[in-house]
């Protein structure tokens, strides 16, 4: 089954208004792309990003959302607010949030559900640490993380995007090999198949030190449907060349 690839830039807590304008302009100038392309930006930049990208086929999104719809949750941003700014995607369960904000599997699942309820597609991140990989726990860890989301989304599980991001590969320059990544993607696909009839049409992205020089070999693997790109998403030329590496 052919799946249209998706490449998403995760800007993390980087950017400034002038830098963003230059970056977005560089991406806009490079169109058309053969894959879907999105940028997930810090909350304060959503409004400007939406204005800049409106009318183009580029998509935008955020990097987190609340499990709640509204209320006394200082500092939180709801999925409904993201939808108001035209967000197509929201990253949930990034390993930095799991580690630094102690997000549990169930909280991540609840965020995914809150996003879908507002028409925003969650990009659900799963991935093992180096210690877990070395202890032979990779499969158990990613299955546990995905299972919480599948059980919470029930019949809507087919609407999420999954991102496999081994924690040891994020920001380290040490990407998983295409074979290592494909092996985990195949496991995740099998788990999705058992849960939803839409599994073969779902996108499973790889993230973790994707660069212009390793993108095409990673993206050529059968179950890798694009990437979630951190550091290399901050330079237009690098991000564009990664988008060009995506298979049709
Ligand atoms: P990286 O980050 O590309 O800088 O490794 C990926 C991510 O954290 O989403």
Brief summary:
By secondary structure, this protein is an alpha/beta fold. It has 10 helices and 8 strands. The chain has a single domain, classed as Alpha-Beta Barrel (TIM Barrel), CATH 3.20.20.
Can you characterise this structure?
This protein is globular. The protein has 248 residues and is α/β, with parallel strands linked by helices. An eight-stranded parallel barrel has the order 1-2-3-4-5-6-7-8, surrounded by five helices. It has a single domain, classed as Aldolase class I (TIM Barrel, Alpha-Beta Barrel), CATH 3.20.20.70. The chain is 40% helix and 15% strand. Bound molecules: 2-phosphoglycolic acid. 2-phosphoglycolic acid (PGA) is lined by residues 10, 165, 170-171, 207-210, 228-232.
Number of domains: 1
How would you classify the quaternary structure?
A: single chain
The 3D shape can be described as: globular
Query: Which topology does CATH recognise?
Result: TIM Barrel
Strand content: 5-15%
How much is the average pLDDT? 97
First and last CA, distance: 12 Å
The count of DSSP E runs of length 2 or more, i.e. the number of strands, is 8
Identify the CATH homologous superfamily: Aldolase class I
Count of DSSP helices? 10
Give a list of the ligands: 2-phosphoglycolic acid
Largest sheet: 8 strands, parallel, barrel
SSE order, as H and E? EHEHEHEHHEHHEHEHEH
Whole-angstrom Rg: 17 Å
Parts with pLDDT < 50 across at least 5 consecutive residues: none
What are its keywords?
binds 2-phosphoglycolic acid, alpha/beta, eight-stranded parallel β-barrel, single chain, 10 helices, 8 strands, 248 residues
């Amino acid at each position: 089954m052919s799946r249209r690839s998706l490449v998403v830039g995760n800007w993390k807590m980087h950017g400034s208004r002038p830098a963003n304008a230059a970056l977005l302009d560089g991406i806009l100038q490079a169109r058309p792309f053969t894959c879907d392309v999105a940028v997930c930006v810090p909350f304060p930049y959503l409004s400007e990003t939406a204005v800049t990208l409106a009318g183009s086929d580029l998509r935008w999104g955020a990097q987190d959302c609340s499990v709640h719809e509204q209320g006394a949750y200082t500092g939180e941003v709801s999925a409904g607010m993201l939808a108001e700014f035209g967000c197509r995607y929201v990253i949930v369960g990034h390993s930095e949030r799991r580690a630094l904000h102690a997000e549990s599997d169930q909280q991540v699942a609840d965020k995914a559900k809150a996003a879908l309820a507002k028409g925003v597609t969650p990009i659900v991140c799963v991935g093992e640490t180096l210690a877990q990989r070395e202890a032979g726990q990779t499969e158990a860890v990613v299955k546990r993380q995905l299972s919480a989301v599948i059980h919470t989304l029930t019949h809507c599980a087919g609407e999420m995007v999954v991102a496999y991001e081994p924690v040891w590969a994020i920001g380290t320059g040490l990407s998983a090999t295409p074979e290592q990544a494909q092996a985990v993607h195949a496991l995740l696909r099998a788990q999705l198949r058992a849960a939803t009839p839409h599994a073969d049409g779902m996108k499973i992205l790889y993230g973790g030190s994707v660069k212009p020089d390793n993108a095409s070999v990673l993206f050529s693997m059968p179950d890798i449907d694009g990437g979630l790109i951190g550091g290399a998403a901050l330079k237009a030329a690098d991000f564009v060349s990664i988008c060009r590496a995506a298979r049709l």
